[in-house]
């Protein structure tokens, strides 16, 4: 980490919670499900799809996992009741991945089954590299039984090409993103050029395959490359969509929508917003830089 980023990250815990909240409010729908629902309604009015995420990860007891499972079920039912165009994004460590594999699998299966009944989709986020193997195993097992489940793949991981190739026979739904966690150089590309190079390479593989590809980035270089490949392979929108995080580069999102493409916005909500924001800032000092920029340019 460069010294400036290190300084920023070390200073963050002393920034008043109120300031962090002000900053985070752009990126997080709010604490309650109603907050997420009203954000999704507005997005749908702008012809944007959504994926709702309940903040939280790395739970340490089965009761916390069941609580998260019940909240996710409520989210799915509420999406249906309000006739919203939104799916669900989940983190497996919130549903017990670090407690017990089978327990986690059955929790996720319950959600995917409910989503299937409600004509909806569950997207599995990819967390740090200690969870990659188990996450992909759960995904493969589920995908062999259900067609309404997707998984994220991180372009910074050197293993991702071979992971994608092992998933392709299942006609997967894959969200390609750069990756947000701090990983060692032995397993991950660290430099932006290398990550972008791998992202383009993986995107090229995905867009030529039977996968449904979710292109999750705010990086114009990568979005331009996606446009190029979409035109080259003459792809229709049943093969891909773009995805962005709530509050990040909305003008670029508007352009994607006005170009006639599908765009899905990741909408996180929940009580754990402070811990979530701080973790993300620590994990990605570049984001911490945005906090400082927003504090000093207000
Ligand atoms: P990059 O970080 O280079 O950003 C490009 C530009 O976008 C920046 O120059 C800046 O202008 C702007 N920008 C990016 N992030 C910003 C922010 N927070 N605030 C303000 N401006 C910002 N990761 C993961 O490990 N597992 C996962 O499951 C997911 N899931 C996921 C879903 C969706 C829908 C998205 C969009 C992203 C993820 N990610 C993720 C996060 C992803 O891996 C990555 O860390 C971020 O998207 C930032 O990378 P970019 O590709 O946007 O490029």
Keywords:
single chain; eight-stranded parallel β-barrel; globular; binds dihydroflavine-adenine dinucleotide; EC 1.5.5.2; TIM Barrel; alpha/beta; 50% helix; 298 residues
**Ligands present:** dihydroflavine-adenine dinucleotide
Radius of gyration computed on alpha carbons: 18 Å
Tertiary shape: globular
Number of beta strands: 8
Secondary structure category: alpha/beta
Named at the architecture level, the CATH assignment is Alpha-Beta Barrel
User: How many domains?
Assistant: 1
- The CATH topology is given as TIM Barrel
Strand adjacency order, main sheet? 1-2-3-4-5-6-7-8
Measured between the Cα atoms of the first and last residue, the distance is 27 Å
**Percent in strands:** 5-15%
Order of helices and strands: HHHEHEHEHEHEHEHEHEHH
Helix fraction, binned, reads 40-55%
Summarize the biggest pleated sheet: 8 strands, parallel, barrel
By CATH reckoning, the class would read Alpha Beta
Low-confidence stretches: none
pLDDT averaged residue by residue? 92
Compute the number of helices: 12
Keywords: FAD, Flavoprotein, Nucleotide-binding, Oxidoreductase, Proline metabolism
Pfam families: Pro_dh
Catalytic activity: L-proline + a quinone = (S)-1-pyrroline-5-carboxylate + a quinol + H(+)
Cofactor: FAD
């Amino acid at each position: 980490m460069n010294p400036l980023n290190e300084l920023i990250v070390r200073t963050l815990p002393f920034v008043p919670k109120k300031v962090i909240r002000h900053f985070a409010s752009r990126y997080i729908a709010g604490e309650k499900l109603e907050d997420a629902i009203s954000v999704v309604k507005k997005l749908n009015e702008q012809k944007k799809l959504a994926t709702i995420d309940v903040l939280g990860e790395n739970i340490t007891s089965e009761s916390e996992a069941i609580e998260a499972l019940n909240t996710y079920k409520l989210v799915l039912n509420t999406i249906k009741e309000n006739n919203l165009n939104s799916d669900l994004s989940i983190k497996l460590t919130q549903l017990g991945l670090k407690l017990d594999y089978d327990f986690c699998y059955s929790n996720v299966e319950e959600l995917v089954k409910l989503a299937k009944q409600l004509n909806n989709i569950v997207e599995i986020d990819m967390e740090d590299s200690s969870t990659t193997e188990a996450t992909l195993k759960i995904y493969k097992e589920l995908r062999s039984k259900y067609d309404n489940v997707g998984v994220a793949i991180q372009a910074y991981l050197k293993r991702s090409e071979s992971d994608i190739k092992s998933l392709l026979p299942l006609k997967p739904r894959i969200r390609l993103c750069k990756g947000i966690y701090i990983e060692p150089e032995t397993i991950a590309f660290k430099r932006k050029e290398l990550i972008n190079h791998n992202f383009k390479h993986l995107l090229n593989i995905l867009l030529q395959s039977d996968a449904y590809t979710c292109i999750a980035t705010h990086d114009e270089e990568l979005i331009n490359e996606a446009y190029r490949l979409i035109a080259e392979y003459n792809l229709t929108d049943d093969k891909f969509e773009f995805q962005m995080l709530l509050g990040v580069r909305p003008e670029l999102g508007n352009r994607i929508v006005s170009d006639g493409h599908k765009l899905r916005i990741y909408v996180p909500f929940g009580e754990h917003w402070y811990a979530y924001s701080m973790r993300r800032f620590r994990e990605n000092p570049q984001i911490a830089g945005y906090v400082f920029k927003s504090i000093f340019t207000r």
